[in-house]
Design brief:
This protein is mostly helical. The chain has one domain (5-134): Winged helix-like DNA-binding domain superfamily/Winged helix DNA-binding domain (Arc Repressor Mutant, subunit A), CATH 1.10.10.10. The longest helix has 24 residues, at 98-121. The chain has a two-stranded antiparallel ribbon with strand order 1-2. 19% of the residues are buried. It has helices at 5-20, 28-35, 39-51, 76-84, 98-121, 124-134, and strands spanning 55-58, 64-67. Helix 1 (5-20) crosses helix 3 and helix 1 (5-20) packs across helix 6 (124-134). The protein has 6 helices and 2 strands, in the order αααββααα.
């Protein structure tokens, strides 16, 4: 399984949004700055996430993005699937020769299944919880 920068940045940005959008909408530019991601690139990623129902947007001076999904039931697998499509989890296991067929069947296919199951078990809520536990008090302060 090869995860692109789109999926990596999407997970990172959605985690940031889940942490910071608890009270108000979050500007995409704020997420881009905090996560060191190009805001133009992030616009493309958020367009896909909006179409997939993970985020919603509000226009205007108090506008920005907020979560449209339930962090308790939204998994890393769901997010990656929305951004990458099913191909990211499906290798081409065509039989090339007997040795490769055995290796595919005994090594790569079970590994893909384990990765998929692991990603399904990781919720956005659990990522938020782990992230918040790693923050120092100064990193978690909000200034008004």
């Amino acid at each position: 399984m090869k995860v692109s920068s789109k999926a990596r940045y999407g997970l990172k940005a959605l985690l940031d949004l889940a942490v910071h959008a608890k009270v108000e909408h979050v500007a995409l530019k704020s997420i881009a700055e905090r996560q060191n991601i190009s805001d133009r690139y992030l616009e493309q990623v958020f367009s896909l996430m909006k179409k997939s129902g993970f985020v919603k947007s509000v226009k205007g001076p108090q506008g920005g993005y907020s979560l449209a999904c339930d962090p308790k039931t939204t998994s890393a697998y769901d997010i990656i699937m929305a951004l990458e499509g099913e191909e990211v989890f499906r290798e081409n296991y065509d039989k090339k020769d007997a040795a490769e067929s055995v290796i595919n069947q005994m090594v790569w296919q079970p590994l893909d299944i384990q990765v998929e199951e692991t990603l399904k078990a990781i919720t956005l809520e659990s990522m938020v919880r782990s992230y918040e536990e790693t923050l120092t008090p100064s990193e978690y302060m909000f200034f008004i």
